Amino acid sequence: MSVIYDKINTREAFGIALSEYAQTDETVFAIGADTTKSMGLVELSKKHPDRVINNGIAEQNMMLMGAGMASCGAKVFVATYAPFASMRMLEQVRTYCAYPDLDVKIVSGLSGLSGAIEGVTHQGIEDVSILRSIPNMIVVVPADAASTKVITKKIAQCKKPVYLRLGRYNVPKVFDDDYTFEIGKANILKDEGSDAAIICNGAAVDRAIRAEKLLSEKGYRVWLLEMPCVKPIDEEAIIKAARSTRAVVTVEENTVIGGLGSAVAEVLSEKAPVLLRRIGIDDEYTESGPHEELMDKYNLHPEHIAAVTEELISLK
Prior knowledge:
- This protein is an alpha/beta fold.
- Helices cover 40% and strands 19% of the residues.
- The two termini are 29 Å apart.
């Protein structure tokens, strides 16, 4: 099947949506760690230069600034790259943002393998796992530009800490302007048949969709769930899919340890035990290279997803 790519990347989509939302909310501020341009804050800076701060390459200070501003009534978006958002400033996120439950949105770019040729230091493959472990933190992973715009405005209305995971490059177009998002809810893309259920998010959604089509060509009928909100996760949707198919496959552009697959496994083990396979990046450091090639190499090729799902179905 042909793949159509978005005209803009998710960081640009985030910046457009935030700039639009800021027109209706004067409490919106944004801080970048020398990333105001690369994280899409240019439009907001043009319209409201007094509401965008370039903190310089000092992510921990940026997080403390954001927490301080939020404690005074601001709605703050702090923006940097995933490895730094999830690791370099983690103590500040945990103690000064999440613990007091402040209205700070942590926006990360270069997530997953989209750090690409920058290598391990700029590939954020553990961020979902790390942030999911922090109390009070909401963790959201959009699939493309259209969903990013909707999600950005939705989380802006929420007054809790949120981790918004974005990529680097233009990704395949999955959704349009009719996309809907609710914190803690899955989007059911397909719920017919009883062979298996694929639960996916982020840049892996397009690949899961292509895998489902490969399986459909072989006669399998597979559920497809987009799970943009990893925390809180939609337990009801997971349980329904599990009981209807008795075989669940998760697909994510994150390490298989602690991310979407682990979150789904926790629900299934306690409330609906069924066969499960987690597809994502194995417990290893990844190479440098083009984003799409890295996704193919590290288990996210549609044919691999289809093969794993077919194998799981055979075990039922």
